[in-house]
Amino acid sequence: MDSGLENVVAAETILSDVDGQNGRLVIRGWPVQLLAASMAYEDAAHLLWQGFFDDLPDVADLGARLGAARVDAFRLVTQIPDGLDIIRFLRTGWSLLEDDESLDSAIRLAAAGPVFTAAAVRRERGQAPIAPEADLSQSADFLKMITGKVPGEAEARALDAYLVTVCDHGLNASTFAARVVASTRAGLVSAAMGGISALKGPLHGGAPGPVLDMLDEIGVPENAESWIDDALSRGERLMGFGHRVYRVRDPRADALKAAVARLPGTSGRIAFADHIEKTVLGRLAKKYPNRTLETNVEFSTALLLEALQIPREAFTATFACGRILGWTAHAREQIAEGRLVRPRSVYMGPVPEMA
Ligand code: ACO
Q: Catalytic residues (predicted)?
């Protein structure tokens, strides 16, 4: 019995490899740092979906189809009820899409992510949604649908770097959930429902918003040690630190830190965050001398998305907009594998008395 399944290998994949001992992440043969520095969202979609859809067009056509699908998705925004937080708004919007196993379904999911996330942000602020512009890149359009302004090249590239960095990560909880659902042949939308529901938890994709809450509560560098010690003495987990697989620093943390540093006006915030990070790591090393707890992707995510003026309540939904590429590719890989996922359990309850 392995309750967290950490020693269970449940799939063979050609999508990504997480080397937790050495802090390396390879996505379809490429180190994540290289992808983060060079790829747009559309390139990453093409890279992940290659070999899983016979009708995959070239990157330029794929970008055009994503743009057209954003416009289609916008028509559904009015059908999403009020009163949902941003991640549930996205989940509800995605659930309205046609559910099959086709490339169109994957494109609709990927394209609708930013449309629903941006509309949810604006609805929370009491603002009308902004219609997508099919000719913009997916990242530029995402930011424009939130702010109303076409972003500069640096901002659009920074969002690309984020979405590409988180597009896939081995058999993490949400991807496993997506694969389990896909194995039942329920369709890619259903698989994405499984993925987003697992992602929303604070131990998985819900961490980056609370990272900013922590930075805000600490406020000034002088408060760091006492704030952190208090939190640890209450038995709290510090968001943005620790990982189930990495025993060293999460390579995505530095890929994203480099992307934040490329944005103008971020040096002060980075210096403050560096101080907090160092203090947390020192305190965690003292509390858990036999266990390496390092910085994970969520710490730098928080800084990057904050610099792009994406509100913290939308961080998990933005994560889902990147990871949807991995969920859909893994879903197709699982479908090709052709095996229903159905593990066994050990019954520990009462047994009936036999006559
Ligand atoms: N802050 C304080 N203590 C921690 C933290 C943390 N961030 N992470 C682990 N610990 C403690 C655990 O409570 C445990 O202590 P215990 O033995 O006294 O119970 C000890 O360190 C060892 O924990 P692990 O077995 O390494 O933790 P696990 O593999 O179960 O959890 C997880 C990994 C869930 C990511 C954990 O580190 C955590 O909760 N981190 C904070 C949330 C977070 O940042 N999540 C994002 C992860 S990245 C991603 O999903 C995209």
A: 243, 298
